[in-house]
Structures are given as structure tokens and as C-alpha cells.
Amino acid sequence: MVDHIAHMASIGYGYSRIDVIYLATDLAVFMGKRKPQEDILSNKWYYSFMKRWPNLTISKPQKLSMQRARCASKETLSNYYKELGTIMTKNNLHEQPHKIFNMDEGLYKLNIAQPQSVTSPRSANVTIIGAGNAIGNAVPPYYVFPGVKFDRALLLDGTPPGSDGQCSKSRWSNSEIFKMYLEKHFLKYVSHDVSGTPLLILFDGHRSHVSLTLQDWAESKNIILFILPPHYSHILQPLDIGCFGPLKACYNREAQLFMRKKSRM
Fold it and tell me: Exposed, middle or buried by CB within 10 Å (0-12, 13-18, 19+), for 52?
């Protein structure tokens, strides 16, 4: 776990105190040291852990400024491509585009207000996970709905063929949901031999996705999860630029037109 936290910090994903607690709790449950229904580990455990590993860098939660969001560090990009190149060379992936997938997710509001109006931060949202490669292979969408009970017939009505989904209490797809997506949905549509060339998945590593148990599972399936540097999706993630961005713009436009028509009835 210490190595994992240090690695994530080295690529720009610094963990906060609560991130470390959730990460350790997840690992404890996986190892059978803690029951899933038990509360997360305490602050007392956290401070004891930090005393044992004083060199670990823990970040404080902070909002990203517009200036930082717009500025791409040449050093960060250089390190990203250097590490990616090393992985591709080591696993003989340079001439195998069918083994390299981009994966991304988009968040879509269910409660669309009129333009320039204020919306509630608690409004319901749906997350859509998508994946594809450079030769045109696309995995059908996977929907993460708010709530607990997943009514497949109702929630997937009208979606593209092969679509699937699940419900989650969190508005973002967490590590457990992400693993289920990979195991039950993604691999169903991607040809992959566990004993052959590994699959390389490039994705925006929202920290709730990246757990130690997920990494262990991926290794057992000969899958390499390669995380994009934080706040660089607008540069490095083609699905963000060419798929989810335009889709969100079209969705918002159609939803606002629908709301205007509805208000005139």
C-alpha cells in the first residue's frame, strides 16, 4: 500500500487523509481482516500509520485553479509518454493497436434546469463509461445510475445494443463498480488471452477507481491499467475530446429544448 501511495503521488495523484483511510479499509476487507459492514478505519489508525511511514506525502484537498487547469506541464507530459513508451516496448504493444484501449466516463445530469438558472448540487446524475481502440473497436456503453435497485428493463430502455449498467450510491463510479465493468462487461466484448499479450487500458484515474484490490485483479487477468496524469484529459484523452464532450453538449441542448417545450404546454 505504501508503494501504491508513493507511485500515485509521483504521477500527480496525491492522497488525502480520508483517501488513505478508505484505501486501507478496502485492503483490510479484501484480506479478511475486516468485515464489509464495519466502519472505516479510524483517524487513530491513520496517524499511527503515518508515524510508521513519515516520508509519505499526503495532500490536502484543494480546488484546481483555472490557470493550473489550462497549463500543461511539459515535464508531466514528458514523464507520461516516457513511462507509456517503456510499458509498450516491454510488452511488445507498438504494433498491436487492438490491444490498447482508451476508457473514459461522462457525467450527465438528469435534472436539467433552464439556461442560466441555478441547479441543486444534489441533483441526480448518470455516469456513462465507454471504451474503444484506434482500429474502431468500441465497447457498448455502461451506465451507472444513482440508487440501489437496478431495473434493467426500465433503465436500459432505448440504449444502444449491448449496453449494460448498475446502480451506485455514489455519483461517481467507484472502484467496485469499475471492476465489475471491466470483468462483466468490458471483457465480454474484447478478445483477450490471459496467457498472451497483455491488454493496455489508458484511463483518467479518478482516485475512487484505483484500489489495491483492483490492481491485483488486473494483474491476474494480464491487464495493465495505465493512468493519465490528473487534469490532462483535455489533452491526452481522445474520448473526452471526441466523444463525451460532444455528447454532453448535444444532450444538454436537447434537454433544454425539451424543457422549453414542456414549459409551454
Answer: exposed
Are residues 84 and 212 located together in one domain of the fold?
Answer: yes
Query: How many residues are recorded in the chain?
Result: 265
Q: What is the pLDDT of residue 120?
A: 40
235 assigned to some structural domain: yes
Helix 17-30 with 43-52: angle, nearest 10 deg? 90
Q: Which three cell numbers stand for residue 172?
A: 461517481
pLDDT tens, 224-259? 999 887 777 777 888 888 888 888 889 888 888 888
229 plus 175 within the same structural domain: yes
Task: Using the predicted structure, report yes or no on whether residue 117 has a pLDDT greater than 50.
Answer: no
Number of domains in the chain: 2
Q: Does residue 192 belong to any structural domain of this protein?
A: yes
| SS3 state of residue 64 | coil
Q: Among residues of the chain, what percentage have pLDDT more than 70? A: 85
Torsion of CA 71, 248, 181, 86, to 10 degrees: -30
pLDDT digits (tens, 9 = 90+) for 128-141: 999 999 999 999 99
Do 122 and 250 lie in one domain? The reply is yes
Amino acid at 134: A
* pTM: predicted TM-score of the whole model, two decimal places: 0.77
For residue 40, give Cα distances in angstroms to 18, 37, 115, 197, 200.
Answer: 10, 9, 41, 38, 32
